[in-house]
Amino acid sequence: MTFARLGLLDILTTTAHELGYSQPTPIQQQAIPAVLAGRDLLAAAQTGTGKTAAFALPLLHTLSTEGARVSANHVRSLILVPTRELADQLLTSLQRYAQGLPLRIHAAYGGVSINPQMMKLRKGLDILIATPGRLLDLYQQNAVRFDQLQLLVLDEADRMLDLGFAQELQAVLGALPKQRQTLLFSATFSDAIRQLASTRLHNPISIDVSPRNSTARNVKQWLIPVDKKRKPELLLTLLEQRGNKPLLVFGRTRKGVQQLEQQLIAAGLRADSIHGDKPQPSRLRALARFKSGEVRILVATDVAARGLDIPDLPLVINLDLPNVAEDYIHRIGRTGRAGNQGEAISLVSADEVEYLAAIERLIKQTLPREEEPGFSPEHRVPTTQAGQPQKKPKKPKKPKDKTSVGKGKIHLGELFEAPPKPARAIRGKPLFKK
Ligand code: AMP
After folding, report:
1. Does 96 reside within a domain?
2. Number of domains observed in the structure of the chain
3. Domain containing 193 — which CATH number?
4. Partners of residue 78 on adjacent β-strands
5. Which of 306, 309, 340 best tests ligand 1's pocket when mutated (most atoms within 8 Å of CB)?
6. Which of 14, 35, 175, 295 is positioned for an S-S bond with 272, CB 3.0–4.6 A?
7. Which residues neighbour 215 within 8 Å (Cβ) at sequence distance 6 or greater?
8. Is residue 401 assigned to a domain?
9. Which of 77, 41, 56, 59 is nearest to 186 (CA)?
10. How far is the CA of 47 from the centre of ligand 1 (A)?
């Protein structure tokens, strides 16, 4: 299968080749013809599968070949996303895919001034990428109208619901014209997502390219048991062994991430961090510094776990395990992308055994353990066995330290304490046509 056979405009096929895409990925092979045929789409796909181009290329084709010129304050297509990071990343990708096409594209999200976004909307936009909250603000201020809307993309729809955007999402959907094409992408499928799909999609084509709740196959995953207080020291040892490779480290709390960043810098390493307490411009700066190689280590909370596009990241380390098992899949999905090999190491202390058991149940495998010489834990991490009868996990304790929770801000750890239950909800009931 080649891009040329998918029916896209020549300019888009050429761009794909120039970007080094020799052939479409499985989701692109299935989604592109379906979107070009005007069908709604319900797609199970994670970041790393090429899903952005799967909707962006046919979207750009459709906007270039159909529909009237966009009027002031109108948008012809809307891509709804859960986070600012994803909005920015999609903007970059879309601009890349749209080279040479006279289309106006912009991203709008909260945490930054609304005025430049209103200015951009004045002339109308062919593509608006937005987070639901800011989009509603813009709509309520009459800065955006939807009468010309042809196409809606819901990207990472599961994450949008996890982050508590259900109401905003319904409000936005209620304001859109019923006559439109809708593409819904989600890594996991909860009852809420299925409900959303059944009410908002019209006879969709279902695509499932990623085995749900499984981790990327070309990622070597294992864990090192270690006492909690020795984790930073162990991390430094691992870094010494592994040389100068770029590295993404995940921590559970903002405070933990900040402390580790300081420890790494104090050890003479080039590190930056990305977490919810940082204002948006510094988060973007940290990401840009990491992508450009200016800093070698990026320490992040789960806010950065999804939608971060770093093509050949060889290594992810979990300084702590996430308290929502699905976040483990998203964290380690940052490596081993686009066919590359990756490695994901988790540093696990005895108090995290419940999180570990939940992760292993979800991914249906027991993570191999390898002790690091000199770091044998005093507090043994109890053995776990994936697939054993499921003991009800204790409710994860909230982080003791509350000082990092900014006043009036939402603490992601708290949001994550009520995870969706996709695995159980869909077991035995195939959601997708083969
Ligand atoms: P995504 O899942 O959209 O975040 O894409 C993951 C990565 O795969 C990005 O770095 C894309 O540039 C890359 N990519 C997307 N489509 C292809 C393709 N057909 N061939 C090679 N790489 C691709």
Report:
1. yes
2. 2
3. 3.40.50.300
4. 128, 152
5. 309
6. 295
7. 221, 328, 329, 332, 333, 344, 363
8. no
9. 41
10. 9
In a domain, 95, yes or no: yes
Q: Residues 94-118: pLDDT tens digits?
A: 999 999 999 999 999 998 999 999 9
Q: pLDDT, tens digit, for every residue of 160-187?
A: 887 788 899 999 999 999 999 999 998 8
Q: Give the residues of the chain that fall short of pLDDT 50.
A: 211-213, 387, 389-393, 399-434
CB 322 within 8 A of CB 302: yes
Q: Is 108 helix (H, G, I), strand (E, B) or coil?
A: strand
Is 177 a member of any domain? yes
DSSP letter string over 76-100?
SEEEE-S-HHHHHHHHHHHHHHTTT
Pull the structure tokens for residue 43. Answer: 């797609």
Q: Any bridge partners for residue 384, and if so which?
A: none
Domain, as residue range, for 22: 4-208
User: Which residue do the tokens 């297509």 mark?
Assistant: 77
Atom from ligand 1 closest to the CA of residue 47:
2
Predicted confidence at residue 383, as pLDDT, reads 85
Q: How far is the CA of 187 from the centre of ligand 1 (A)?
A: 16
Q: Which tokens in the block code for residue 50?
A: 């090429």
- Bridge partners of 181? 151
Residues 200, 245, single domain; the answer is no
d(CA 45, CA 43): 6
φ, ψ of residue 162 in degrees (nearest 5)? -55, -35
Instruction: Give the C-alpha separation, 30 to 12, whole Å.
Output: 17
172 plus 252 within the same structural domain: no
Whose alpha carbon is nearest atom 22 of ligand 1? 21
User: Would you state the structure tokens that stand for residue 24, as one six-digit string?
Assistant: 């479409």
Q: Which residues line ligand 1 (CB under 6 A)?
A: 21, 24-25, 28, 47-53, 309, 311, 337-338
